[in-house]
Amino acid sequence: MEQIRINKFIKECGVASRREADVFVEEGRVSVNGNTATPGMMVSDTDEIKVDGKIIQRLNEKHVVAFYKPVGVVCTKKDEHAKVTLQDVFSYPVTLTYAGRLDKDSEGLLIMTDDGELVEKMMRGRYGHEKEYVVKLKREVTEEFLKRFEKGVYLKELEVTTRPCKIRKTGPKEVRVILTQGLNRQIRRMCMALGNEVKELKRIRVVNILLNDLKPGEYRELTEAELKELYRILEIKR
């Protein structure tokens, strides 16, 4: 039986990306045949592998779901400091994980899946896939704000300048933003750096998948046409 590294096995089970799987192993959350897993160890389908006490298996059929994350929900399964986590509001017959998180104060589209390769492609900023947001601000939007935002903003706390992006004014205090990277609280940090502040932030699109008429806490299965186009854009074989 072919053996692969433990982080790759976990990814192919749709539980997490390889990087997140490495963290799970380091935190002692993964076991192999009853023993705590170690970084880089080799495993196969004949081994009993558990994450957080639950047996995981590599999957043939992949599931991809569009979910509307409500405001106040933390994108994690376990967080002792969080009042409400994703696990509390999202239930599906198969264990799914998010492909690109939203911070607690933001709402909107999350792609939930058990396809590890899909998670990997969508969560890594280097792939440059689009994510679109509706942003309501505390102060009026100026032309200077739009020009500086679009060009890229230096974020002192992260010591990085954001990539050029697309921004369009849709109201006196509202804009639509399209990003191709996903820094931590990026839009909020950019607005603060430019002297404004986010009141509400909603993600309405990820790559070709739209939030459409979903309500907070609702999910829907992606259509075959959506899936075909998504996998084509991401260059993933189904």
Summarize the structure in words.
The protein is of the alpha+beta class and 238 residues long. It has 3 domains: 4-55, Structural Genomics Hypothetical 15.5 Kd Protein In mrcA-pckA Intergenic Region, Chain A; 64-124 and 211-234, Pseudouridine synthase I, catalytic domain, N-terminal subdomain (Alpha-Beta Plaits), CATH 3.30.70.580; 130-206, Alpha-L RNA-binding motif (Alpha-Beta Plaits), CATH 3.30.70.1560. The chain is 24% helix and 28% strand. It has 7 helices and 17 strands. The chain has helices at 6-12, 18-26, 86-89, 116-123, 143-151, 186-193, 224-234, and strands at 4-5, 30-32, 35-36, 42-43, 49-51, 54-55, 64-69, 97-98, 107-113, 131-137, 154-155, 160-161, 166-171, 174-179, 198-206, 209-210, 219-221. The strands form 4 sheets. Strands 7, 8, 9, 10, 13, 14, 15, 16 and 17 form a 9-stranded mixed sheet that branches. Strands 3-2-5-6 form a 4-stranded antiparallel sheet, with no helix packed on it. Helix 1 (6-12) packs across helix 2 (18-26). The longest helix has 11 residues, at 224-234. The radius of gyration is 19 Å and the shape is elongated. The mean pLDDT is 91.
